Protein backbone atom coordinates (compact mmCIF):
# COMPACT_ATOMS: atom_id res chain seq x y z
CA UNK A 1 0.00 0.00 0.00
CA UNK A 2 1.20 3.49 -0.79
CA UNK A 3 0.57 5.48 2.37
CA UNK A 4 0.99 8.88 0.72
CA UNK A 5 -0.38 8.84 -2.82
CA UNK A 6 -0.75 12.04 -4.82
CA UNK A 7 -4.25 13.39 -4.20
CA UNK A 8 -6.41 15.96 -5.97
CA UNK A 9 -8.92 18.58 -4.94
CA UNK A 10 -12.33 18.55 -6.67
CA UNK A 11 -11.81 22.08 -8.00
CA UNK A 12 -8.30 21.43 -9.43
CA UNK A 13 -8.06 22.57 -13.07
CA UNK A 14 -7.57 20.24 -16.01
CA UNK A 15 -5.49 19.19 -17.86
CA UNK A 16 -3.30 18.02 -14.99
CA UNK A 17 0.32 19.07 -14.67
CA UNK A 18 3.13 16.88 -15.95
CA UNK A 19 4.45 16.52 -12.40
CA UNK A 20 1.14 15.06 -11.28
CA UNK A 21 0.90 12.70 -14.26
CA UNK A 22 4.38 11.35 -13.54
CA UNK A 23 3.74 10.73 -9.83
CA UNK A 24 4.98 7.31 -8.77
CA UNK A 25 3.97 4.97 -5.97
CA UNK A 26 6.35 3.60 -3.36
CA UNK A 27 6.86 -0.15 -3.48
CA UNK A 28 8.84 -2.36 -1.13
CA UNK A 29 11.11 -5.30 -1.91
CA UNK A 30 9.36 -8.65 -1.92
CA UNK A 31 11.74 -9.95 0.75
CA UNK A 32 9.98 -7.81 3.36
CA UNK A 33 13.12 -5.82 4.16
CA UNK A 34 11.21 -2.56 3.99
CA UNK A 35 13.80 -1.12 1.64
CA UNK A 36 12.54 0.66 -1.47
CA UNK A 37 12.25 -1.62 -4.48
CA UNK A 38 15.17 -1.55 -6.91
CA UNK A 39 12.95 -1.49 -9.99
CA UNK A 40 11.53 1.74 -11.36
CA UNK A 41 8.40 2.50 -9.31
CA UNK A 42 5.11 2.37 -11.23
CA UNK A 43 3.20 5.47 -12.24
CA UNK A 44 0.16 6.24 -10.13
CA UNK A 45 -2.89 5.16 -12.15
CA UNK A 46 -5.66 6.31 -9.81
CA UNK A 47 -5.84 9.59 -7.93
CA UNK A 48 -7.99 9.92 -4.81
CA UNK A 49 -9.94 13.17 -4.67
CA UNK A 50 -10.22 14.74 -1.22
CA UNK A 51 -11.96 17.88 -0.04
CA UNK A 52 -10.38 20.66 2.04
CA UNK A 53 -11.00 18.64 5.24
CA UNK A 54 -9.16 15.62 3.81
CA UNK A 55 -12.30 13.51 3.29
CA UNK A 56 -12.45 11.17 0.31
CA UNK A 57 -14.90 12.45 -2.31
CA UNK A 58 -14.05 10.07 -5.14
CA UNK A 59 -11.25 9.09 -7.49
CA UNK A 60 -10.02 9.92 -10.97
CA UNK A 61 -8.15 7.56 -13.32
CA UNK A 62 -4.88 8.82 -14.77
CA UNK A 63 -6.17 8.71 -18.37
CA UNK A 64 -8.98 11.13 -17.46
CA UNK A 65 -6.39 13.62 -16.26
CA UNK A 66 -4.14 13.21 -19.28
CA UNK A 67 -6.94 13.65 -21.87
CA UNK A 68 -9.83 15.40 -20.11
CA UNK A 69 -11.77 16.30 -23.27
CA UNK A 70 -14.23 19.10 -22.48
CA UNK A 71 -13.78 18.75 -18.68
CA UNK A 72 -12.49 21.86 -16.93
CA UNK A 73 -12.00 20.59 -13.35
CA UNK A 74 -11.36 17.31 -11.56
CA UNK A 75 -15.00 17.32 -10.40
CA UNK A 76 -16.07 16.95 -14.06
CA UNK A 77 -14.29 13.57 -14.41
CA UNK A 78 -14.70 12.38 -10.81
CA UNK A 79 -15.88 8.83 -10.01
CA UNK A 80 -18.00 9.76 -6.97
CA UNK A 81 -18.21 6.32 -5.33
CA UNK A 82 -15.07 4.38 -6.24
CA UNK A 83 -14.48 0.81 -5.12
CA UNK A 84 -12.54 1.06 -1.86
CA UNK A 85 -10.67 -1.41 0.33
CA UNK A 86 -9.80 -1.38 4.02
CA UNK A 87 -6.35 -1.58 5.58
CA UNK A 88 -7.29 -4.79 7.42
CA UNK A 89 -8.53 -6.61 4.28
CA UNK A 90 -6.45 -9.62 3.25
CA UNK A 91 -4.58 -9.77 -0.04
CA UNK A 92 -7.05 -12.42 -1.20
CA UNK A 93 -10.06 -10.20 -0.40
CA UNK A 94 -8.53 -7.25 -2.22
CA UNK A 95 -7.55 -9.36 -5.24
CA UNK A 96 -11.09 -10.77 -5.40
CA UNK A 97 -12.58 -7.28 -5.25
CA UNK A 98 -10.23 -6.11 -8.02
CA UNK A 99 -11.20 -9.07 -10.21
CA UNK A 100 -14.93 -8.69 -9.51
CA UNK A 101 -14.92 -5.00 -10.47
CA UNK A 102 -12.25 -5.15 -13.19
CA UNK A 103 -9.97 -2.60 -11.51
CA UNK A 104 -6.24 -2.42 -10.82
CA UNK A 105 -6.13 0.18 -8.02
CA UNK A 106 -8.34 1.36 -5.16
CA UNK A 107 -8.25 3.89 -2.34
CA UNK A 108 -7.67 2.42 1.12
CA UNK A 109 -10.01 3.85 3.76
CA UNK A 110 -10.69 3.27 7.44
CA UNK A 111 -13.39 0.72 8.11
CA UNK A 112 -14.97 2.93 10.79
CA UNK A 113 -14.82 6.09 8.66
CA UNK A 114 -15.06 5.34 4.92
CA UNK A 115 -14.28 8.95 4.02
CA UNK A 116 -10.87 8.93 5.77
CA UNK A 117 -8.20 8.10 3.17
CA UNK A 118 -5.39 5.88 4.47
CA UNK A 119 -3.58 5.17 1.20
CA UNK A 120 -3.81 3.57 -2.22
CA UNK A 121 -3.31 -0.08 -3.17
CA UNK A 122 -2.57 -1.41 -6.66
CA UNK A 123 -2.14 -4.77 -8.35
CA UNK A 124 1.63 -4.17 -8.07
CA UNK A 125 1.31 -4.04 -4.28
CA UNK A 126 -0.70 -7.27 -4.30
CA UNK A 127 1.96 -8.99 -6.40
CA UNK A 128 4.70 -7.74 -4.05
CA UNK A 129 2.76 -9.23 -1.14
CA UNK A 130 2.34 -12.54 -2.95
CA UNK A 131 6.07 -12.66 -3.74
CA UNK A 132 6.79 -12.12 -0.05
CA UNK A 133 4.45 -15.04 0.80
CA UNK A 134 6.17 -17.26 -1.77
CA UNK A 135 9.60 -16.37 -0.38
CA UNK A 136 8.44 -17.31 3.14
CA UNK A 137 7.01 -20.61 1.87
CA UNK A 138 10.28 -21.38 0.11
CA UNK A 139 12.25 -20.68 3.28
CA UNK A 140 9.98 -23.00 5.29
CA UNK A 141 10.33 -25.94 2.89
CA UNK A 142 12.73 -28.62 4.00
CA UNK A 143 14.75 -30.03 1.13
CA UNK A 144 14.79 -33.78 0.74
CA UNK A 145 18.41 -34.91 0.78
CA UNK A 146 19.71 -37.53 -1.65
CA UNK A 147 20.73 -39.81 1.23
CA UNK A 148 17.16 -39.77 2.64
CA UNK A 149 15.72 -40.52 -0.78
CA UNK A 150 17.99 -43.51 -1.35
CA UNK A 151 17.29 -44.93 2.10
CA UNK A 152 13.55 -44.66 1.57
CA UNK A 153 13.70 -46.26 -1.88
CA UNK A 154 15.69 -49.27 -0.61
CA UNK A 155 13.19 -49.93 2.14
CA UNK A 156 10.33 -49.93 -0.31
CA UNK A 157 12.05 -52.57 -2.45
CA UNK A 158 12.86 -50.37 -5.42
CA UNK A 159 16.14 -50.57 -7.27
CA UNK A 160 18.61 -47.86 -6.50
CA UNK A 161 21.28 -46.19 -8.58
CA UNK A 162 24.77 -47.56 -8.09
CA UNK A 163 27.42 -45.04 -7.25
TrEMBL record:
Residue span, CBS domain: 78-136
Position of the signal peptide: none
Keywords for this protein: CBS domain
Gene3D superfamilies: CBS-domain
Pfam families: CBS (PF00571)
Taxonomy, superkingdom: Bacteria
InterPro entries to which the protein is assigned, alphabetical: CBS_dom, CBS_dom_sf, MgtE_transporter
Protein known as: CBS domain-containing protein
Organism: Pseudonocardia lutea
Lineage: Bacteria, Bacillati, Actinomycetota, Actinomycetes, Pseudonocardiales
